[in-house]
Amino acid sequence: MKLLQLLIVALSVMFFSVAATAGDKTKVGFIYVGPTGDHGWTYRHDIGRQDVEKHFGDKVETTFIESVKYGPDAERAIRAMAKGGADIIFATSFGYMEPMLKVAKEFPNVKFEHATGYKQSKNMSSYGLRLYQARHVQGVIAGMMTKTNKICYVGAFPIPEVIREINTYYLGAKSVNPDVDIDIVWVNTWYDPGKEAQAAKVMIAEGCDMVAQHTDSPAPLQTAEKAGVLGFGQASNQYKFAPKAQLTATIDNWSPYYIEKVQAVMDGTWKSGDYFGHMKDDVVQMAPFTNMPADVKAFAQKIKDGITNGKYFAFTGPIKDNTGKLQLKDGEIADDGHLNSMMYYVEGIDAKVPGN
Backbone phi, then psi, for 21, in 5-degree steps? Predict the structure, then answer.
């Protein structure tokens, strides 16, 4: 695997070096945390890359390196793309933040974009989507549909993005079902179908009948279907993998952002910033509501519409964490700083955030 990754980096450098001879093409690179065939997170980022190619045609050259580990491997891959002539590089996972920040200082003329992080520099932006909005709708559905009052969540890594979505999923369920409880299993990987499936099996065996996940394969949802319970797709519409189990799915639509930022590089108008896409912009999408009664579907749509039009905010106080500390005052709506640094479980979740 190590040799394969180094070969891919070398080929990426060669690709951009050849492309650079054309002179007029904008070179765009992508660093992926998983395989493009994960049918989840990386799959959707690669759809964005493909849409960049479709939109700009022969004005762009794109390349990607998949399954890049955090740490030195990430730094080498990002640096190789920059050396190879990339005009803009998108690194699509939280753990790439520090390596990208370091490489960005070495290549001031290259534009760098980091997904789901919170650090920026003169030539490095951060970007993300408010995927917690769709997750809250999932929670509402779960709270209305559960028969055991036990919902569950397969977590990847304990970072603010994942903690935030666990909280909003639970809050959504709790808002319609005060008796609901949640179990969480951490697998410490973004993509490992075996581990993901096993985590789901354990929680289903303990009574969970609503399976949510923040990992990238369809395995937890497929496990739910085999067990005769229900769940939610992650990052893309995974209905074809579990047509009897999927209730809906979050769909990450990165294409508009990627097209906009590549266009800015072409125009010479690119600026560093921090983007947090909203459901109202159609970048946070949801798969059709299936396998649920009409009343559940109607109520879920009402909540989704409220989030979209800005009249409903999942993180509205009073909200306490599960130690009793007040995190949001009565009527206070969480700002982006609060959302992006969320490392606490909300009141009612009987667990401890790993590492805290």
Answer: -65, -25
Domain containing 112 equals 2-129+254-277
My answer on whether 77 and 17 are in the same domain is yes
Return the C-alpha torsion angle 216, 219, 221, 223, nearest 10: -160
What is the pairing mode between strands 230-233 and 181-186?
unpaired
User: Do 305 and 173 share a structural domain?
Assistant: yes
CA 264 to chain centre: 24
Both 32 and 89 in one domain: the answer is yes
Residue 356 lies in a domain: no
The domain spanning residue 117 has which CATH number? 3.40.50.2300
- Cβ–Cβ under 8 Å, residues 326 and 334: no
> Are 260 and 304 within one domain?
no
Specify whether 186 is located in the same domain as 294. Answer: yes
Please list the pLDDT of the chain residue by residue as tens digits (356 residues).
Answer: 444 455 555 555 555 544 444 468 999 999 999 999 999 999 999 999 999 999 999 999 999 999 999 999 999 999 999 999 999 999 999 999 999 999 999 999 999 999 999 999 999 999 999 999 999 999 999 999 999 999 999 999 999 999 999 999 999 999 999 999 999 999 999 999 999 999 999 999 999 999 999 999 999 999 999 999 999 999 999 999 999 999 999 999 999 999 999 999 999 999 999 999 999 999 999 999 999 999 999 999 999 999 999 999 999 999 999 999 999 999 999 999 999 999 999 999 999 999 88
